[in-house]
TrEMBL record:
Protein name: Uncharacterized protein
TM stretches of this protein: 6-24
Swiss-Prot/TrEMBL keywords: Membrane, Transmembrane, Transmembrane helix
Length: 190
């Protein structure tokens, strides 16, 4: 009886220690701060030089400053290792640049960015709706009249970014948008 109790105690102790080690390791793993925020956040303020969106955009621009960094990030995006909110932020930044350069599918990208600001892609249906609209954007950019469809939202995001010149880069000049998207609509996130 004592032997069975000791075995159970050792198993319990090992299980507790593995949980404890997992908790200790978690803060050491790099996580995007964009995960904590999103387009529905009250302080997001897309299109404004003040707010969480501006701060997160500055940090993302710095992390994706070189072609090599963008290539590595795009590869991680295609394999599902990039957070959806970070991808949406990158899309917003790239669309701003692409719209000024006439590379956003004759305004289709700008419309998608306005839909992001209006929180269309938040909530449980958000990723599905975003994938559909990204696939339409890719078709518009390529000039292909056939409907395009990728395997998932992350793949659609990567393809749309590349179609708008993401790999080549081009810094976004702060405050130089076509028309600021500052109107905040109340998000009805499901």
């Amino acid at each position: 009886m004592a032997r069975n109790f000791r075995g159970a105690a050792v198993l319990l102790f090992c299980g507790m220690m593995s949980c404890f080690v997992g908790i200790l390791k978690e803060p050491l793993m790099p996580r995007s701060s964009v995960l904590r925020y999103g387009w529905a956040d009250k302080d997001w303020n897309w299109g404004s030089p003040f707010g969480t969106a501006h701060d997160e955009a500055m940090a993302l621009r710095e992390r994706l400053d070189t072609r090599e960094q963008r290539a590595s990030w795009a590869q991680r995006l295609e394999s599902g290792e990039v957070d959806l909110e970070e991808m949406k932020l990158a899309l917003g930044l790239r669309i701003q640049h692409a719209a000024r350069a006439g590379m956003d599918g004759d305004g289709a990208g700008w419309t998608l960015m306005q839909d992001m600001a209006a929180c269309k892609y938040e909530g449980s249906d958000g990723p599905k709706l975003l994938k559909e609209d990204l696939d339409q954007l890719i078709s518009a950019i390529s000039g292909n009249s056939k409907d395009f469809s990728s395997k998932d939202v992350m793949n659609s995001g990567a393809l749309a970014l590349k179609a708008m010149g993401f790999m080549e880069g081009g810094r976004i000049v702060l405050g130089a948008t076509l028309s600021p998207v500052r109107q905040r609509t109340k998000c009805n996130v499901k």
